[in-house]
Amino acid sequence: MTTPAADGDSGAELPESLIPTLAGYTYTDPSVFALEQERIFEQMWFCAVRGADLPKPGDFRTVQVGRESVLVTRSRDGVLRAFLNICRHRGARLCTEETGSVKRNFQCPYHAWTYGLDGKLVAAPNLTSMPDIDRTEYGLKPVHLREWLGYAWLCLAQEPPSFADTVQADVVQRLGSLEAIDNYEVEDLELGRRITYDVKANWKLIIENFMECYHCATIHPELTEVLPEFADGYAAQFFVGHGAEFGEDVSGFTVDGSEGFDRLGGVESDQDRKYYAITVRPQVFINLVPDHVILHRMFPLSEDRTIVECDWLYSKDVVASGRDVSRSVELFHRVNQQDFDACERCQPAMSSRAYADGGVLVPSEHHIGEFHEWVQTTLAQTKDGER
Ligand code: FES
Ligand SMILES: [Fe+2]
Question: Among residues 43, 332, 281, 317, which one has the least CA distance to residue 168?
């Protein structure tokens, strides 16, 4: 993967204000996407499932992580576990549904090999006549799982990277400390609303869009009403610990600036009336406001298609009381639609000859260059970490 600056064959020197983006083909080439699946999504921690979506033993969800289908379920001991969603007999996909619940085990629809909720092989036709089959050895292949912020994060790597040095480091880099997010007590919040977006765009366009606010004044009228500093298009994500302040006559983070709910448990006064946006590589966005949290998980399915699941999380009291969350949901739902429309507008242009050498980043977008460098470096690494 090269940029015009890197391969130097695009001719023009860029003026100081501009730095190059990635080249167009990196957003459209299936072989680049395959490499990203292998070296990014199958190596890093991937935020997959909200734990509370699987409240009882046997509840399950299947998710696409890199090129693999992964089955996440709650075992009898209450622990969330994840497995490759592949039968060990002849490789049939075990669960074809996206969500569901089984009573005590998963049975393969092909020859009926049957696995416990802990992945162990518990039954198969004629299994007793094959006493040499080790039921753990022929159990489902486990996938690393770590719970944080109320979500199951999965890692397909043999040796997962340190969670603290990757996922949590991205949060610390943005907020200045982990306590700053702990204050929102995200793991105790409840789902007020979930909206799933099927975005016809490469996952990198979605990340890049989330990382800058140069577009805010043009496409986000409601958001810039609530957060006036966003109208200047400056890079709110770039300054460690900086939260964007609500406008003076804004009462809450709602579509019309009307009042929201009580501050979440541990939110400190210096976090009040502020909005923080965090990008956790490679596929999560976290938005913090005093009375709720909005968390996006991206599921990149192909070079030009990404499913985004967006959760609006509120305190237990707000959800239990049935209070109307629609005004706060509506604000970010509009932001999402505006953003994803913009990404979908760019995607077809990525294969145009006009974009063969990529585009440019203005100063308030220059930090996106670090994301591009990270992608390039990561793709250049071989499996054992050598370059
Ligand atoms: S492939 Fe699953 S039981 Fe045969
Ligand atoms: Fe946006």
Answer: 281
Domain boundaries, the chain: 46-155, 176-365
| Protein residue with least CA distance to atom 1, ligand 1 | 90
Q: Which of 108, 127, 138 to mutate to test the pocket of ligand 1 (most atoms within 8 A of CB)?
A: 108
Q: Which CATH class is domain 46-155?
A: mainly beta
Is it true that domain 176-365 has CATH number 3.90.380.10? yes
Closest among 285, 134, 155, 142 to 210, alpha carbons compared:
285
CA dist 179 to 171, 354, 360, Å?
Answer: 10, 46, 36
What was the pLDDT predicted at 235? Answer: 57
How does pLDDT run across 289-319, given as a tens digit for each residue? 999 999 999 999 999 999 999 999 999 999 9
Q: What is the pLDDT of residue 6?
A: 44
CA nearest to 350, candidates 13, 12, 30, 9: 30
Burial class (CB in 10 A: 0-12, 13-18, 19+), 105: middle
Residues of the chain where predicted confidence (pLDDT) is lower than 70: 1-11, 234-238, 382-387
Q: Is the CB of 125 under 6 A from ligand 1?
A: no
Q: What is the pLDDT of residue 122?
A: 96
Longest distance between any two alpha carbons in the chain, whole Å: 76
pLDDT, residue 232, reads: 84
Q: What is the DSSP letter of 236?
A: G
- Residue given tokens 């994060």 in the structure block: 153
Ligand 2 mean position to 250 CA, how many Å? 20
Q: Whose CA is nearest to atom 4 of ligand 1?
A: 111
> Is the pTM above the cut of 0.90?
yes
What does the pLDDT read at residue 239? 74
What pLDDT, on a 0 to 100 scale, did the predictor assign at position 233? 75
Q: Residue 384's pLDDT is what?
A: 55
What are 298's strand-pairing partners?
Answer: 308
CA distance 248 to 331: 18
Nearest ligand to the CA atom of 218: 2
120 vs 105, 126, 129, 258, CA distance in Å?
10, 17, 18, 53
